[in-house]
Amino acid sequence: MALRETKKVLIVVKTYPTPAHSGVEVSCTAAITENAEWIRLFPVPWRLLDSDKRFRKYQWVEVAVSKSTSDVRPESYKLSGDGITILSDPLPTRYAWRDRKSALRPLLSHCLCCLMERQKRDGHPTLGIFRPREIKKLRITPVNPNWTAEQAVLISQGDLFGKTPKRPLEKIPYGFYYHFKCDHETCNGHQLSCTDWEIGESYRKFRRQYGDNWEEKFRQRYEAEMIEERDTHFFVGTVHQHPQNWIICGLFYPPRIIENLSLF
Fold it and tell me: To the nearest 10°, the Cα dihedral for 254, 227, 112, 199?
């Protein structure tokens, strides 16, 4: 049995939930330890957590964890649901881009190509953050709008303690893919799926507000602004069952200029 330990971490990534075989819906959650190391927390059934344990991005949290025995990725730790203590309010967006980038700077990678080469050679890292040289476009692709029969059973049965969310988990009927190039001399371009919780929630919000015209507002925020107005970085990670496959699990998008000083 893996040893249980306590870590102080800064939450930086939370993906849109998906059904899980453990009987709960889970969100992939990544954080940075106080020693500036990546850590992946799972399972995180965020909507099933008690309100005093529902941490947010850029919030310092103390977590009780044990090294995963089912996930060989070195950054992966199993989270104890009763071992979450929120230590701070989230770093405020308006004034804290510098605080956020200070925490992220030690882990900033040159490019996705470099991360992929290192992971293929050494088996790690399987989490990273980098700034793409050029974001070409955001592709929005329709997918099956319904959960599979197996997934529907998983999200309806609740967790081991019988908890179920107040509202059923909505499936996002689109896949979102960024096309971009790395700042690497041999890069031929990439297209990665983006599973950030925020992008899924924005779709739901814009669909309610604008109906069939949601895509125009969505593209303005996640394509035009990310390309033209923001110093956009991608949080990326590998897929558990397909360790050579990478996805964008989070977006980091400070204004391009902060008081005339570049971010990194």
Answer: 70
At 156-183, the pLDDT tens digits run 776 544 566 778 889 999 999 999 999 9
Please choose, from the candidates 85, 98, 92, the residue with its C-alpha nearest in 3D space to the C-alpha of residue 54.
85
Please give the DSSP secondary-structure letter assigned to residue 52: G
Q: Specify the length of the chain in residues.
A: 264
Domain boundaries, the chain: 4-86, 97-252
3-state secondary structure of 245: strand
Cβ neighbours of 93 (radius 10 Å)? 11
CATH number of 4-86: 2.40.50.140
113 backbone φψ class: left, alpha, beta (φ>0; ψ -120 to 50):
alpha
Yes or no: say if 43 and 24 are a contact pair by the CB < 8 Å rule. yes
